[in-house]
Amino acid sequence: GYMREKILSMLKEHKDEFISGEMISNKLGISRTAVWKHINNLREEGYEIESMPKNGYKLLNCPDVLTLEEVEEYLNTEFIGRNIYYFDTVDSTNIKAKELAMEVEEGTVVIAEEQTKGKGRLGRDWLSPKGKGIWMSIVLKPQLPPSEVAKLTLIGAAAVSKALEEIGIESYIKWPNDIIVQGKKICGILTEMSCELNMINYVIMGIGINVNLENKDFSKELVDKATSLKEIIGHSVDRKKLLGAILNHFEDLYIPFKNAGDISKVINISKEKSILIGKKIRIIQGETERTGKALDIDEEGRLIVEYEDGTVDSIFSGEVSIRGLKGY
Ligand code: BTX
Predict the structure, then answer these.
(1) Domains in the chain with CATH codes
(2) Residues in Cβ contact with 160 at an 8 Å cutoff, skipping those fewer than 6 apart
(3) What was the ipTM of the complex prediction?
């Protein structure tokens, strides 16, 4: 509610100092009992608020939740993430985002603390335990032909990789949709779209990042190929700050694409951070599997591969799976 938000922002403006219940009640024109009730509700939501009879209330700590209220201070975007639908638990944020897509403005983000049916590509599952990751979907409405959609995944991967760099983590992009840290998957991207023959209606860009998972959160099969920031750094990472950084970088890279089809910066990042270029890879397309070497990423975002028979081909992400020969 409105009063709750007002009280919270007053507490935040005076973080680590007391403000009197009387001042809040005068400013908002509500009774001191009403103020006290709102304070108690905030406490139930996880806000740590000290109260002293003479001095009033002091905000000590905000909960680790990815609401707009909590993330806003890290955002410097125009429209990406300015509208956040926040859920405690959903089946999949991509599914939720699809339900909302036609009604919401571009840049709307759907976030959940937990997904019970998180989706990977090709019907695979995505592990999304409660409060430990960033499980989100961004609604995009670029006025572009459907063939351009593959490039969006590259924009997402570049944005995540740049944001990780900002918090001191070196990551690699496994074209087109995974982020790898220390040889293990830390982030996956699932881009889905609804389109007409030659026009996109909307795109849902689902991004999953393993932030504060521990090895025990992964299954036996996953623990060898997946990791989290907490496992890498050795302590918990601030999800709000990381989320803000991702959305900021995303908008930065998305605007030139949306307005002018320009992904040159994205391609540079994709190449610079590519884990595949120069390596032997397996290219899996349905039932067929071929071995080759990744040579480059071209200006359209396609992966250039040289097969063992010497033929060179450029692959447009689509339904192709790429495997390194060493695990990831
Ligand atoms: P993918 O098909 O490339 O990867 C899925 C595979 O990765 C799984 O089969 C499993 O082996 C492994 N895996 C599953 N969970 C994890 C995890 N948490 N960390 C590392 N590896 C894992 C990649 O698909 C795309 C994933 C997108 C996830 C986001 S989360 C928000 C949004 N909503 C939604 O339902 N999906 C997206």
Answers:
(1) 2-61 (1.10.10.10), 68-272 (3.30.930.10), 280-324 (2.30.30.100)
(2) 171, 179, 187, 189, 207, 209, 246, 249
(3) 0.99
